[in-house]
Design goal:
- By secondary structure, the chain is α+β, with helices and mostly antiparallel strands.
- It is built from 14 helices and 37 strands.
- The strands form 7 sheets. Strands 6, 7, 8, 9, 12, 13, 15, 16, 20 and 21 form a 10-stranded antiparallel β-sheet that branches.
- A hairpin with a 2-residue loop joins β2 and β3 (about 50-55).
- About 50% of the residues are buried.
Length: about 675
């Protein structure tokens, strides 16, 4: 950093410290809570009646005093003139089991502070704030109890602030823009962020990692983060068509605002369990009817433009073509076959204009009953597809009948889609007028939950694309199994620019902190629509371990897998459900090394990916069970591999015996990766 810039930053830091001290001196601390291991502490204070919170880690400030409250419609804002009525701290420690997931067992160990505030002026309204403090993060929310004169609240703005104390670097994508969540991640100084989606990931100059997100987004607008000055951010809620952000009856509670905190990028991924812990337990009961699995389908060909969604000579969703995919799935052990373009409505301009979609009948060249029988005879299930083209009310009017049709024919997973520009989703009012909504506004939050709940009644799982972001609701509704919500593999086919080599190492420490992503890896042809896929072949295999989803697509064409049988061997073997997950190494946007334990057996799998830089590293295999030897089958980049040119296909398959004491060298080519399967060689001693 140039000397002048360094002096300027020192002045800003000193100014910030001064403001921290001034705010602390002026404010009255009214409540405090520490995490169970006394790593983090949260202090609540009142600054001239305004509620503030601050977060420290081992006594060092991370979140400077940050204000809380609401801007209400046609009412005095809920922010000033408060006094503490009462507060209480309680501890909680339990371990619960996921029906599927990155970890089978999740520990929920936190201390909770609940504080009630009441205005001292004329209104005397009551506001509760609840903080849950873990050793690796903080979650907090508001609760507005039912009270005289407050039967309903209309929120124009949430005034929650996040004042980040240390100088930091951010990885972020813009919010409130036309392309929803589908942007490449930017790496900038935090002071250059404008308005960002969450999760937004930071690294302080002192090497602390933070991620800002939310949990349990129910009947509320999604939260964006808007920088207001220096490193101070404020919650910005996605707008509703009526002009406000949220309208709710009391009593009400907001989603949890979450701050994940760790001393390494690897630990940050593990801290994402606090998002799950802040959601309510499973509301569906026995969900064994959902089976994590891999699938193939009529999809990549559509992005290559060798087949089409629309009817005509290149129509992909035909009976004969689908039978071909069913046969391939049955031969190679894939449970599902996705078919897009199976129903009327795809002809013409459907993008953002899905009024012609009919979800209750197939096209004339797609025999749904016959194909479902044909698949069932071969142990395969059709995966359904409901693309709305942004006509959401139109879809809701057919939802029950559409799901009934699928249930009748054994379709137990449905991919939904909401292809429309941000702020352009169709909502039909009771009087017939059409208004437009954002993908992450309150109305869409409720819509997605309606779809998931209706699907659960029929034992159907949901995988939305162009979705609302994941906030851990899969714990409460385990049939909400995956979603998109970021730039997926299709951008490798036709994106301008395409997904670069760093993309997946960015996703792992940003988007994947929110939950599973249906990224659709496995493009072994490494070829898009007139442009190469910017990875090596080995990296495509590693993505099956790195980017978690309980439904995993082998996204390439059957004929391409026939030409790359060695790669298909790994794709067939890798599980879609895990007992445990360990992040062995990584840095945001640079590289990541992950090990996962098969839930159905004793095998472990390792996936490693890098950006445009090749890397040599060594990883300890101490995650393996002591006293056992394992055969490690390694799919690695060839010695000449590189993400550019034909050398990206260079891949070497090796085998060696290892145990928990082994330190294994990894060689990752530029834009490359490595995938390893560890199989026990001997019985347990």
């Amino acid at each position: 950093m140039p000397k002048a810039n360094r002096l300027l930053w020192m002045l800003l830091v000193l100014t910030g410290i001064s403001r921290w001290n001034d705010a602390t001196a002026a404010a009255e601390t009214v409540a405090r809570v520490e995490s169970p291991g006394k790593v983090l502490a949260v202090e609540l204070s009142l600054d001239e009646g305004r509620i503030q919170y601050a977060v420290t880690r081992f006594g060092e400030p991370l979140i400077a005093p940050s204000r809380m409250g609401f801007q209400l419609r046609n009412a005095e804002k809920l922010q000033r003139g408060f006094a503490l009525v009462e507060s209480a701290v309680r501890s909680h420690d339990e371990t619960w089991e996921q029906p599927w997931g990155e970890w089978r067992f999740v520990r929920d160990h936190h201390n909770e502070l609940r504080a009630r505030f009441r205005e001292t002026g004329r209104a005397r309204r009551t506001l509760d704030v609840v903080f849950r403090v873990f050793d690796d993060g903080v979650g907090f929310r508001y609760e507005i109890p039912r009270q005289d004169g407050v039967d309903e609240v209309i929120i124009d703005d949430e005034l929650t602030e996040f004042a980040i104390a240390p100088k930091s670097t951010a990885w972020w994508i813009p919010a409130g823009e036309w392309n929803r969540y589908e942007y490449l991640y930017q790496k900038t100084p935090l002071v250059e962020v404008g308005q960002a989606h969450t999760p937004m990931t930071l690294r302080t100059d002192d090497g602390i990692y933070l991620a800002f997100h939310e949990a349990a987004l129910v009947d509320y607008a999604g939260m964006w983060l808007r920088r207001v000055e220096e490193q101070r951010f404020r919650a910005q809620l996605a707008p509703a068509s009526e002009g406000w952000k949220v309208r709710r009856s009391t009593p009400m509670q907001t989603p949890w605002r979450t701050i994940q905190i760790a001393d390494s990028a690897a630990a940050l991924y593990a801290s994402s369990r606090l998002t799950l812990n802040l959601n309510e337990p499973n509301a569906l009961g026995d969900v064994s009817w959902f089976q994590p699995a891999k699938y193939v389908g009529v999809w990549w060909s559509l992005h290559l433009d060798t087949e089409t969604w629309a009817r005509g000579p290149k129509h992909g969703a035909t009976t004969s073509n689908t039978r071909r995919y069913i046969d391939f799935a049955a031969e190679h052990g894939f449970r599902g076959v996705l078919v897009e373009g199976w129903n009327p409505g795809w002809d013409g301009q459907w993008f953002g204009n899905g009024y012609d979609f009919d979800f209750t009948r197939p096209t004339d060249d797609f025999d749904l009953p016959g194909l479902s029988r044909y698949a069932a005879e071969r142990g395969v299930h059709l995966i359904g597809h409901h693309e709305t083209g942004g006509a959401v009310s139109h879809y809701e009017s057919q939802l029950g009948a559409a799901l009934d049709l699928y249930a009748k024919h054994g379709v137990d997973v449905v991919k939904t889609g909401y292809v429309a520009d941000g702020g352009q989703l169709e909502r039909r009012l009771d009087d017939g007028r059409i208004v437009r909504e954002w993908h992450d506004g309150q109305w869409m939050s409720n819509h997605h939950l309606r779809v998931v709940q209706e699907a659960a009644k029929r034992h159907i799982a949901i995988n939305p694309h162009e979705p609302i972001k994941d906030t851990g609701l899969r714990r409460t509704y385990p049939n909400w199994v995956s979603r998109e919500g970021a730039r997926g593999m299709e951008y490798a086919a036709w994106g301008n620019p395409p997904n670069p080599p760093e993309h997946e190492a960015n996703l792992f420490f940003t988007r994947l902190l929110a939950g599973p992503m249906d990224f659709t890896p496995g493009i072994v042809s490494l070829q898009g629509r007139g442009q190469p896929v910017e990875t090596t072949l080995a990296k495509q295999l590693a993505l099956y371990v790195v980017l978690y989803s309980p439904i995993l697509m082998a996204a390439d064409l059957p004929e391409h897998y026939a030409a790359h049988g060695d790669a298909l061997t790994f794709i067939k073997a890798v599980p879609a459900d895990w007992q445990d997950t360990r992040v062995l190494a990584g840095e945001v946007g640079d590289y990541v090394v992950v090990a996962r334990h098969d839930r159905a057996g004793d095998d472990w799998y390792l996936g490693a990916v890098t950006d445009e830089q090749g890397r040599n590293m060594e990883v300890a295999l101490d995650f393996l069970e002591p006293g056992r030897q394992y055969t490690a089958t390694i799919w690695r980049d060839g010695d000449a591999a590189h993400w550019r040119g034909d050398s990206r296909f260079a891949m070497q398959i090796e085998s060696r015996v290892v145990d928990a004491s082994t330190r294994l060298p990894l060689r990752l080519a530029a834009g490359g990766g490595q995938a390893i399967r560890f199989q026990p060689l001997q019985a347990e001693r």
